[in-house]
Specification:
Blueprint: E1 2-6, E2 11-15, E3 39-45, E4 54-56, E5 62-67, E6 72-77, E7 82-88, E8 94-97, E9 103-108, H1 110-114, E10 120-126, E11 132-138, E12 144-147, E13 153-157, E14 162-166, E15 172-175, E16 189-192, E17 198-203, E18 206-211, E19 217-222, E20 229-232, E21 238-246, E22 251-259, E23 265-272, E24 279-280, E25 286-290, E26 296-300, E27 306-309, E28 313-319, E29 325-330, E30 335-343
Antiparallel strand pairs: 1-2, 2-11, 3-30, 4-5, 5-6, 6-7, 8-9, 9-10, 10-11, 12-13, 13-14, 14-15, 16-17, 17-18, 18-19, 20-21, 21-22, 22-23, 24-25, 25-26, 26-27, 28-29, 29-30
């Protein structure tokens, strides 16, 4: 056991053992009963408390979720139908499995919730033993984390900068410099492209693109979609926006996909209700949105064809690493696992 301090990026680490296309091609695929697909539910985790975080391993076998108010993170085995491990991260905000499913990353983004400076933490846990392997802290908080495709590194958003860490040793390999006005900067999400050579960080309606090896900024793209939630596709060719609008009769959420290079719209779809997030599946095939209507909706990410809602799911929700499964909290407070490759009754 040893201690490590890194001044650049203000990180301290304790090593203990994530062309315009014409209107004719725009999909206005509002939800309709005929479009809905009855996804097959393959498992149900009976719970005593409603989770606020859910993640599922690449093979769809292990589900992670928080439990109670004590910061307990519980790992549940789908085949064994039982809890296999647990760990504690009291202020954890997000969960993410490594590509091989052997590690679980938890992040603590308190400053982004409280809008003030304060410590934040990302922890790496062994899925097999529940032991904490690394603890990485930042003066500005850790608001997001993403593993590289090979699982050897993890990219972390440190509220106003980005750093790349070695998963095996915890060593910081590269970091961006803090932004000019860190009090207003707030990186919401990070993504490593499937190719592994680019890192994307999303801050409001700005998408910064960095080289993965040295975190040198390649360019910044201003989406201009104010009041939207922005997600970048894993293939690094498009991004999606989710914008909720208060209509006269009811709220409507507009989902749009855009060319990441030319910033031109591909497709558009609408769904009733107020939805505040959108997520690409790791294989880039689906877009998922969870809303205040307590429904989880899916679209074809390439065409924005509406694929239907996952019955009984209300979020939070997460994709498995290969995009085959979705795990989500249900209206009863349990957690369900759905196979996106099969329909009900198959």
């Amino acid at each position: 056991m040893g201690n490590r301090s890194v001044k650049d990026g203000r990180i301290s680490l304790r090593f203990c053992q994530s062309a315009w296309i014409g209107l004719a091609t725009i999909a206005l695929a509002a939800p309709a009963a005929a479009a809905q697909v009855p996804w097959r539910e393959v498992a149900r985790w009976k719970r005593d408390s409603v989770p606020t975080m859910v993640a599922i391993s690449r093979d769809g076998e292990i589900v992670a979720a928080n439990e109670g108010d004590a910061g307990r993170i519980v790992l549940w085995d789908r085949s064994k139908r039982g809890v296999v491990q647990s760990c504690v991260h009291e202020e954890a905000d997000t969960l993410q499995f490594s590509p091989d499913g052997k590690l679980l990353a938890t992040t603590d983004g308190r400053p982004s919730r409280w809008s003030r400076a304060g410590p934040g933490i990302v922890r790496l846990w062994s899925v097999a033993t529940g032991a904490m392997l690394h603890e990485i802290s930042s003066d500005w908080g850790v608001s997001a984390a993403a593993f590289t495709p090979d699982g050897k590194k993890i990219v972390v958003a440190l509220h106003n900068s980005v750093a790349v860490l070695d998963v095996r040793t915890g060593e910081q390999l590269a970091a961006t410099s803090a932004r000019d006005n860190p009090t207003s900067s707030n990186i919401r999400s990070v993504l490593v492209a499937n190719s592994g050579d680019e890192v994307f960080s999303v801050d409001g309606d700005d998408i910064d693109i960095w080289t993965q090896d040295s975190l040198k900024r390649k360019r910044v793209m201003y989406s201009g979609r104010l009041r939207s939630v922005v997600a970048v596709a894993p293939n690094a060719k498009q991004y999606a926006t989710c914008t909720a609008i208060n209509g006269e009769a009811q709220a409507v959420t507009v989902i749009e996909t855009w060319d990441l290079i030319k910033n031109r719209r591909y497709n558009r779809s609408e769904v009733p209700g107020w939805h505040r997030n959108i997520t690409y599946s790791p294989d880039g095939a689906f877009l998922l949105a969870v809303g205040d209507s307590r429904q989880v909706h899916l679209w074809n990410a390439h065409t924005l064809e509406y694929r239907g809602k996952i019955e009984d799911a209300c979020g939070p929700a997460g994709f498995s690493g290969d995009g085959s499964f979705v795990a989500a909290a249900t209206t009863s407070g349990d957690i369900g696992v759905w196979d996106l490759r099969a329909k009900a009754g198959e």
